[in-house]
Amino acid sequence: xxxxxxxxxxxxxxxxxxxxxxxxxxxxxxxxxxxxxxxxxxxxxxxxxxxxxxxxxxxxxxxxxxxxxxxxxxxxxxxxxxxxxxxxxxxxxxxxxxxxxxxxxxxxxxxxxxxxxxxxxxxxxxxxxxxxxxxxxxxxxxxxxxxxxxxxxxxxxxxxxxxxxxxxxxxxxxxxxxxxxxxxxxxxxxxxxxxxxxxxxxxxxxxxxxxxxxxxxxxxxxxxxxxxxxxxxxxxxxxxxxxxxxxxxxxxxxxxxxxxxxxxxxxxxxxxxxxxxxxxxxxxxxxxxxxxxxxxxxxxxxxxxxxxxxxxxxxxxxxxxxxxxxxxxxxxxxxxxxxxxxxxxxxxxxxxxxxxxxxxxxxxxxxxxxxxxxxxxxxxxxxxxxxxxxxxxxxxxxx
Length: 399
Fold this sequence. Notes:
The protein has helices at about 10, 35-50, 65-80, 110-125, 150-165, 195-205, 215-220, 235-265, 295-310, 355-360, 380-385, and strands at about 20, 50-55, 85-90, 95, 105-110, 130-135, 175-180, 205-210, 270-275, 315-320, 365, 370. The protein is of the alpha/beta class. Strands 1-2-3-6-7-8-9-10 form an 8-stranded parallel barrel, surrounded by 5 helices. Strands 4-5 form a two-stranded antiparallel sheet. A two-stranded antiparallel sheet has the order 11-12.
């Protein structure tokens, strides 16, 4: 079946036939080693095989994204049924971000203009692939202490992109957004409820919000801890109940963003730009912390989120496709390194074991490795690594 070449962001977002995922192809402990064109193509074949049709990227400072767009173009030429679209991220920083100087959150980095310019050039070069530009990633949330900016900076660049659309310099059906924490979009602390944010909500084509119950199992653990009325349940039942509460936690954050937007008299699509669940952690989320991270819970969260968002026609850019060991290079077992549905070497984690069983990856490889299951596919071995969420009196970290 040939691909519809006129497809737009409006057709893709909220369409369960176009599953979305966050993508980085880095295999090493440094981004100085960029994925090769062939490595990118192998990854695209794997994601396409599992039904992914939309990728989210994060910056255009490095060569990965230009090479990714080239890889997708080549795959489309090689196979008329191959289809993949991109939500192109443009990274936004404040002045002095990532330096030995104190970040100035009231002034934007001089690098931002060049980043936006590069994003525009790629959207112009690949209009058949780039369907969305996201200005900034968690660039407004205050806990991003290294680099966050005020909403007026994001608004400035969103307006700039919208003006380019009006001038015909970008496709009119390209959608523009910013991808940020639910609180940054008005769904949490009222400190974010500013007129600049309200104007930003008016300016974007849709809202892209993040929700992470896994992180909140440490920072806001009330929903995660085993309640007194469930103490007598079996371990399996306690875990399942906790995962249902995690789903409800995300649903409430989603609803809070929608409700804030509607309180302004605005009614636009709201999609999930990022959510995920790590499979390993030696810090806050592991056995000495909230006991959230393992492949079983990660798999349950993936399944629950896909079922809910597909049913409600919410796009969910699940974080993420592959483990990326550069994320926390100083701590090999840090949770940031283990959000992938695949390991670095290409093993399918529990969340997608069923796809291995279906044979969707037959003949495909990552770095020359055929796609097999983690734990050699033995669920009993996997379950041995699963911990029950704690009761409050069991906590070993200072919450």
